[in-house]
């Protein structure tokens, strides 16, 4: 029977026939065709990669698989990555966060030209930008003008008027009375209280203010008061970049419970809100586990950063390919440095995490550059690669353009000056990694979760081990095919059959 069990796992698209003899112990009697002379044998249905997850998600977004190649900010998730993910039957998100508006527009136009006007399985990223007033509005305006119909909203700590406006402007009522969406928000969250705001209808005050401003119509406000702000909620567990390091199973359960509460309170069916899982999605086992928990879709991030379509330069991708599951660390985020918000980054091969933490310790102590001991001043100058005053003048020039009030405050407050210069260093760390700056390898900021290490262990010795062979298409197809086989192995085990442990793993293969 072991040979049959192996065949059933390795051919998950074929039916497996189970017989239960008088002993009561199930037996696998055939794979594929129904066994002759055994009319009582029960068929175990096929397992297709396309069937894993919520098929309504794939139908809504024009995808073959319930699989999202997630956005990675600052253009790490390039237009090319989005195009290749979409062509592979996945949903792809452009890493538009942190890019100039002109570059975002160019990237969106490149995607649209490649995929055509009918493609629905792609979108772009909107990141919460409290330090840059007006930025969210400007990006949303751009998305609306370019007919970007899917937006992944990340790092939000609260619901904002611009997110509500984007959703409301895409709502219409169909002839049968149902409310339809033209604009879809994928809310990436790691806390139930934040998720609940996206799961619920938009707050009355925000809607009234938007109507008063002429940003939406009264009819659109009425529709927005009846449906969730976001129908897609991405549970962001222990991921690269902004993360609360939540275990996937705990976070998913928490958000599922939140969905139940919000749906009951607002009289919505729970199925109107789909929860996907991100963070730690790197192997067939993790993909299968996510779907088994009830995830509507999975989202991959860190592992795609090492793919050839990534906007990360070759030196950074090479560092990622050597990472183990423990080769990550938390460090202050450039965009929310003063608030103490952290991001998870690659630790192996760089000093960025340690240096970022030291900058934040100086800031938290209340120090300014001028009040620090000479040894610490020298350390700062060495890390910056220039005297602090030169770094401050460059920082001041930029800050005056985007946030004049902060620049004015920093002119009088040395601690604030130190914070702004530190933010510039943290920001530049990502830029140096993106460009592959040869003299700044120790300062590369590479957003990375432990999934990267798990992926490297999985592909070791396979055709996907070399960085040059890693494409978003091959990564996605191997993960989904592998998850189907792991799911089939679980099916057989749940029927009472003894399944060898090695059948719960899958080695990568090159798909045509």
Automatic annotation (TrEMBL):
Residues 368-444 form the [Acyl-carrier-protein] S-malonyltransferase-like inserted helical domain. GO terms for molecular function: dioxygenase activity. Keywords: Dioxygenase, Oxidoreductase. InterPro entries: Aldolase_TIM, FabD-like_helical_ins, PfaD-like_TIM-barrel. CDD domains: NPD_FabD (cd04742). Coiled coil: none annotated. This is Oxidoreductase, 2-nitropropane dioxygenase family. It comes from Hyphomonas neptunium (strain ATCC 15444).
